[in-house]
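Final paragraph of the annual report: two paired records, presented back to back.
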Amino acid sequence: MERNLEQTVALNLAELRRAKGWTQAELAEKINYSDKSVSKWERGEGLPDLKVLMQLAELYGVTLDALVTEGAAEKSLAAVEIPRRQRVGFRVVMELLAISLVFLLATVFYVVVATYWHKHFWTGFVWALPISFFLVTLFNMRWKYRACAVVFASLFAWTLLAALYLQFLRYNAWVLFLIGIPAQAAIVLLAQVRKK
């Protein structure tokens, strides 16, 4: 059974928006329309004008044909599926590269201190952990991987406390870990606020 133009555009718009991971309100903000208009278009109760359709096609990186032809959005998404996987691989490589750089600097620092001052500053490697988790948190926030950002922000907070504890071990500063409880709650709550 062939759909009418409104239904076809509605399905294609909804599919492309969901593939981007955007809410109707986020899309509406990007194109300077109300979320009620976007909702109406996605229900098939109206059509955006040609200028808006062209703006949406550009925003989604598809042709105008992908918005108005039945099943075309699905084919367009299938065509970009491989590059999306490649982007994820690129992002993982970038994160691992950043972590490697941090540990390389920690190793250089350790070698210099051991060579010139004859001290073994092993806690430099411990400090490399929170720095690494901080960088990975920034990457995930930038790439809008909220769940990963929360996990790595939590790891950053706890490894930072562990590094401080090990740095001041002789002072028996275990109470530092109590800071982690409200910090963890703040990280989770902040993620919820940003999601809204």
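The closing record of the year follows.
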Amino acid sequence: MNHVPMRVISSPGARPIKPTRRALAKQRTREKVLAAARQLFTERGYEGATIRDIAKAAGMSTGAVFASFADKSELFDEILAEDYALLGEAMQDAASSGTTVSEALTKLFAVAYRFHMNQLPLLQAGIAASWTRTEAGEKRNREALKPVMTMIADSLRAGVDRGELSQKADLRLIGGILWDVYLAGYRRAVFDGWTADDMTARLSDQIDLILAGARS
């Protein structure tokens, strides 16, 4: 007896299931809350923007906000996660266009610098809030950053495969150092008026210096 795989059960004329009105309304509410929160976090910072203010800016009650997000930290982390999700494809394309490990990493980080310079106060709020996150919030943030950290690791691994970096190089350690150096660049933007190009040029030199100890 022939058995038909269970996954082959839909008919050619089957229509995709449409979301219910309630689901659509919930999604619209969530989007309005995120938009209002992004604006206020950018203007006032993390501490200065309250749930009450966010609800008012979104034109709804605080209860409606809490129906979508457990607390302010979850709402804020969702905004940061959205940004890195948007950045993901552009960063991957940039890294793929690099012909050397240094070039790939420089291009990858340059995309992030250009993106965040357009909303620098929000990034400042994110860095400031990172010091007071709950354990759950830190886990959410690290989960959102995983794709970016994977890109960094993949670029380094490609450098090893091409013979640019030593097989014995500690890629995890190098990746962590690169991330820390990248983040430190934003202080120059905030306090010294550096542009994205300024930060990228400096980071390129720093990447070369960091990788020098891992060359084959």
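Confidence is low (pLDDT under 50) at residues 1-11. This concludes the annual technical report; the extension proposal builds directly on these records.
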